[in-house]
Design brief:
heterotrimer; A alpha+beta (243); B alpha+beta (271); C alpha+beta (267); A: 243 residues; alpha+beta; 5-stranded antiparallel beta sheet; 5 helices; globular; B: 271 residues; Glutamine Phosphoribosylpyrophosphate, subunit 1, domain 1; threonine-type endopeptidase activity (chain B); hydrolase (chain B); cytoplasm (chain B); EC 3.4.25.1 (chain B)
């Protein structure tokens, strides 16, 4: 049976616009996360806004978690996948202890295990950007970051989630001193890397999130910073703009 | 022929099919409201403009003047609300000059709806038109496709539901000017806090019968940014100088030489 | 005219051929691929909830919509589980009834295997169970088409309210609403509790009033809602208060008396 249509330019427009017929198992719940490694500490921060579309679901829904063994973790993006991933990892830490006489799971082992969890769903991925932070075997701050299917890297700092593209260049410049030269060397000598103090890092994190909240609609309400030192995990909360 | 130009329509469709996406227009996500009171009408708007998830403008103006006593709040595509409003403001002025009468709200609304209907919704302008004229105070809304609506209280934009919630619970007939201002600003505030497309400040405009319209730009500013924790001043020399090029300033002198006249004559015009 | 009423409204065999009964057994013993829920059929609209200093209040209307048809007006969408946990369900009603069945058997299991009188099933546990269930179903691409709000108490006996939807996305707040309520009711609820933790300053009367205001606004503005609803008050140290057949109070349609037309003439 043929369909008669009045010829018009707009008919092409209608046909080229895809109409969704299938159930879409993913959504985006906004929020942004940020991890920075220091000399003998590491921080993982995230805002506490939970969204769908133009709605704020909750102004306080924690997205960074203490998963035990002095490791903090976040999986930002599609919240249900994030929760599933973190729950699975927490569970595995528990089993690791049962099987190994309560042994601590080291950062690099944790990092590799999370790769396995993510890659295990290679063809139905967890739609999240994952970050973990803690201390390595020498007691230095460590941050590991992942793509949705498990490619990972240890880094000095990393931003993830909605406003990652706003925060990351700021971090490159302020943490790794990219594009900065030593004054008087006429651009011959790059400003060398040096560790920031915990105080400086926290200030940087707050400024990054306040700025992201100004310009990204999915960021705001509250900022929760989890700080890992040899003495354990500590949490700091500060409010962000709520509009 | 005046109006929009569709010459590039086919080219754009072709480019889109090759994966070149269309330019993204700035949209005014927006909460806008209007409410009548005993002796006039109030309209109000938030001041956030967005381009996708990014805030494009933190303090834009969504209250437009159509005539001295007729104002309009716009939601939708920023450029469309701006241009359609300017066009109708001009036509309204010409019409009022020709007829030698004060412009009326119903005229503004009719010009808007006829213009928007002609463009079949392709102009993304959603407006609340309000004002006072010789027939009294009026409040109407116009949708992009050209349909109109009149009401005692109206709201439009992505935050219209949040705003409508407060309008529906707190509205009452025959409010005073102050009560109406309070209601409208409350409605906008609910949009600002609860709708991600709306934010920053509240703009408000009061039009009272027999008086000049009052625009309260930034009537409320509940979203002032707090001070930064750190200073981001760079030491001089942090940025490498890759190339230097110094030019001398040129002095351009201009001398006017009178032509075909005696130099004394030129000055006599004034005398 | 077809004289067999059984065939009324069915595809005519003369036109479409005989019905292939394999379709009904899709995915079991047939060549037809199994098809999962693609969209909801009979639906319930918003569920709204608020925490207050002594507990939680949930409300949902009694309508079951079939598209734009008001098909049922006696649907109970607030399900009680155990002593003081209530689940408010919106979305597909058949899936909601399936959920009710799961929850019934969960409660039964609790009572049979854990009847020491202590460690009763709490709202947190019910929520965790539902979150896992809904996430599991979405991962099979066979979702239960619902958005739920679970109200009750947490392990410490403090007021608890958390929601979960068909994707398994869950979040908690002192003010929650599904569907249209997320747009219309939440802003009003947040006027009473601007800060999440401040629910402890809210009295039962305040909470009840704002819920009634929300149900009125929803009835005004949600075209898939009705003015008959149920409300549950879950209060510390008290038996659960379940009120049925409440009617939206203080409706006011007086604004209409001054409105003439749509701005088409000087009326």
């Amino acid at each position: 049976m043929s369909r008669t249509t009045v010829a018009s330019e707009y008919s092409a427009e209608i046909q080229s616009t895809p109409i969704e017929h299938r159930f879409n198992p993913y959504s985006d719940n906004g929020g942004t996360v940020l991890g920075i490694a220091g000399k003998d500490f590491a921080v993982l921060a995230g805002d506490t806004r939970h969204v769908t579309g133009y709605n704020i679901n909750s102004r306080y829904e924690p997205r960074v978690f203490d998963v035990g063994d002095n490791i903090v973790m976040t999986a930002n993006g599609f919240a249900a996948d994030g929760k599933a991933l973190i729950d699975r990892f927490k569970n595995q830490i528990k089993w690791y202890k049962f099987n190994n006489g309560g042994k601590k799971l080291e950062m690099q082992s944790a990092a590799r295990y999370i790769q396995q969890l993510l890659y295990g769903k290679r063809f139905f991925p967890y739609y999240v950007s994952t970050l973990i932070a803690g201390l390595d075997e020498e007691g230095r701050g460590a941050v590991y970051s992942y793509d949705p299917v498990g490619s990972y890297e240890r880094e000095q700092c990393r931003a993830g989630g909605a406003a990652a593209s706003l925060i990351m260049p700021f971090l490159d410049n302020q943490v790794n001193f990219k594009n900065q030269f030593i004054p008087g060397t006429d651009g011959k000598e790059k400003r060398p890397f040096e560790y920031l103090s915990l105080q400086e890092v926290i200030e940087l994190v707050k400024d990054a999130f306040n700025s992201a909240a100004e310009r990204h609609i999915h960021v705001g309400d509250g900022l929760e910073i989890l700080i890992v030192t040899k003495d354990g995990v500590r949490t700091e909360y500060s409010p962000l703009k709520r509009d | 022929m005046p109006g929009l130009n569709f010459d590039n329509y086919q080219r754009n469709q072709y480019l889109a099919s090759k994966g070149f996406s269309q330019a993204k227009a700035t949209s005014t996500g927006t909460t806008i409201v209007g409410c009548k009171f005993q002796n006039g009408v109030v309209i109000a708007a938030d001041t956030r403009a967005t381009a996708g998830d990014i805030v494009a403008d933190k303090n834009c103006e969504k209250l437009h003047r159509l005539a001295p006593r007729i104002w309009c709040a716009g939601a939708g595509t920023a450029a469309d609300t701006e241009m359609v409003t300017q066009l109708i403001a001009s036509n309204l002025e010409l019409h009022s000059l020709y007829e030698n009468r004060k412009p009326r709200v119903i005229t503004a609304m009719t010009l808007l709806k006829q213009h928007l209907f002609k463009y079949q919704g392709h102009l993304g302008a959603y407006l609340i038109v309000a004002g006072t004229d010789p027939t009294g105070a009026h409040l109407t809304s116009v949708q992009a496709h050209g349909s109109t609506d009149v009401g005692e209280y109206l709201s439009l934009g992505s935050g219209s539901l949040a705003a409508m919630a407060v309008l529906e619970t707190n509205w009452k007939p025959d409010m005073t000017r102050e009560e109406a201002m309070q209601l409208c600003s409350d409605a906008i505030l609910l949009g600002i806090w609860n709708d991600l497309g709306s934010g920053s400040n509240v703009d408000l405009c009061v039009m009272e019968i027999g008086k000049d319209a009052n625009l309260y730009r930034n009537y409320m500013t509940p979203n002032v940014r707090i001070a930064k924790e750190r200073s981001y001043k760079f030491a001089r020399g942090t940025t490498a100088v890759l190339q230097t090029s110094v030019r001398d300033l040129l002095d351009v002198e201009e001398t006017v030489i009178p032509f075909g006249q005696k130099d004394s004559d030129a000055m006599e015009i004034e005398a | 005219m077809e004289h067999n009423p059984f065939k009324w409204g069915r595809p005519d065999d003369a036109v479409y051929g005989a019905y292939n009964h394999q379709i009904a057994e899709a995915g079991v013993n047939s060549l037809f691929p199994k098809m999962n829920t693609q969209n909801p059929i009979i639906t319930g609209t918003s569920v709204i909830g608020i925490k207050y200093k002594d507990g939680v209040i949930l409300a949902a209307d009694n309508m079951g919509s079939y598209g734009s048809l008001m098909r049922f007006s006696n649907v109970e969408r607030l399900l009680t589980i155990g002593e003081n946990t209530v689940v408010g369900v919106s979305g597909d009603i058949s899936d909601a009834q399936q959920l009710a069945r799961y929850l019934d058997s969960l409660e039964l299991q609790e009572n049979v295997y854990d009847n020491d009188g202590e460690n009763q099933l709490k709202a947190v546990n019910v929520h965790e169970y539902l979150t896992k269930l809904l996430y599991h179903r979405r991962s099979q691409m066979n979702p239960l088409w619902n958005a739920l709000i679970v109200g009750g108490f947490d392990e410490a006996g403090e007021p608890f309210m958390k929601s979960v939807d068909l994707l398994g996305v869950s979040f908690s707040s002192s003010t929650l609403a599904t569907g249209f309520g997320a747009h219309l009711a939440v802003p009003l609820l947040r006027q009473v509790i601007p800060e999440d933790k401040k629910y402890v300053d809210v009295t039962e009367e305040q909470a009840r009033k704002v819920i009634e205001d929300c149900m009125r606004v929803l009835f005004y503005r949600d075209a898939r809602s009705m003015d008959k609803y149920s409300m549950v008050t879950i209060k510390k140290g008290q038996e659960l208060k379940f009120e049925k057949d409440l009617v939206v109070k203080d409706q006011n349609w007086r604004f209409a008396q001054n409105i003439r037309g749509y701005g088409n003439a000087q009326q």
